[in-house]
Amino acid sequence: MRLSRAALAFVLATTSTVPAFAETPEDALASRFRAASAWLDANLAKESAPGAAIGVVHDQDLIWSHQFGVESYATQNPVTDDTLFSICSVSKLFNGVAAMNLVEEGQLDLDAPLTRYDASMALPDKLGSEEPVTTRGILSHVAGLPREGTLDYWADNSFPDVAGLRETVSSQEQLYKPYDHWQYSNLGMAMLGDVVSRISGKSWGDYVDQTIFTPLGMTGSVTDMPFDRVGNGFAQGYYIRTAKGERQPVEQHSFRAFAPAAGVASSIHDMAKFASWNFRLLDQGGEEILKATTLKNMQRVHWVGADFEEPAWGLAYATRRYSEKTMWGHGGYCPGARTELVMRLPTKVAAVMMVSANDVSPGAMVKTVYSLTEEAIDKVHGKAAIEAKKAAKTIKTAKAEGAESKVDLSAYEGSYHVANYDWDLYVGLNEDGLFALPIFTDDPVGDLETWVHEKGDTFRRKRKDDTLAEAITFERDAAGKVTALVQHSYRSTKR
Known about the structure:
The chain has 13 helices and 20 strands. The chain has an eight-stranded antiparallel β-barrel. The chain has a six-stranded antiparallel beta sheet with strand order 2-1-12-11-10-9, with helices on both faces. Strands 3-4 form a two-stranded antiparallel ribbon. Mean pLDDT is 89; it is low at 1-19 and 397-405. It is α+β, with helices and mostly antiparallel strands. The radius of gyration is 26 Å and the shape is elongated. It has two domains: 5-43 and 377-494, Lipocalin (Beta Barrel), CATH 2.40.128.50; 49-359, DD-peptidase/beta-lactamase superfamily (Beta-lactamase, 3-Layer(aba) Sandwich).
């Protein structure tokens, strides 16, 4: 929590040693991102993640990215922003955009029976439903379709081709009447992808590449797994750890007819371009791949659970709730990979993370990074940027007037470790002092502390009610370098 302007003025007026501040909001944001990097590295290492990449987008720019690990244990090539990962069910967003492109062209009706376009997509009707399976129902996962087909293709990655998909559909039954309940359905997305292919006269992959990837400059993204590049531009996926802590690589496979549900491979750079397209079209209006009105329709709630609880779904796009904020995007989970994409539309901030192991969840990690940096991003890039810059000038002026001494906050920044315990901290720069981010807690942002300078190398923790608590004292070596801190009698050494 930041000091209010009134509180800040009081502190400046009543202390002989002027409290230390980050010089600019940019400094504070950079420190937050360094803390996020340290937090991610520690937690990904704890999970034995093979490789991961994360990016944060503001409007049209990838403002920060971080990489962890390697593309494969075999090659040991480091992960980069251009490394392709299987993005799993985030692929459904591209299937949705492709379908809505055909809707705009008048070739596909959102509420027409899917069988109008592909007779092989007819399921036996044993429920006597008067509601047909439609594109709208599939995109919102309320078409009454089962989650999967009749075969357990996820067990051995033996995904069917189009002929196999049609056979699956003909032998499958609806679970319930459309719009009665929500049921996530990979089968439905595969069925819709086949319809997109039939209407367009192109393979699903070619249509997505020509209508979405190429116009957006997503030059690395593909609609099938590029195993010919594994470890050399494509992240090898790995299964869950065995009892001995070992990971087995995922076998080569193709999602085939289920590519519209989970078959895209993409990178941080390319997914940043996709997020920017969302922000650009919604902000500027007009038409780019889709009409802005169409994208807005996709990103409004078409289905919400009882008592307004999740799941809440648009057309292909899902919602997430971060405290009181609504995020749009999608998550993904498939053989050897997990992905999370979230976008905060009003502030034009997005975060995307990809991991090459299916037992390492990026969802909570993305939420932590977003929550940790949200306010600082706004002060540099958002509506609060001008006000923040004015405040920084006021602080600089106050520091210059009658200051007896200043403290260099950057000397304290870094990772601190308590031997034999998981009480690691990252100490970073606030505009009003220091913050301490606990590395290994269930709620690192909720447990984040603000430390207010008292004197010399001593700070005090600020409680939620703005009163001051225990002292935190930093230690230095003979050369004056900060080497440790003491809080609650526990000594943490600086890494």
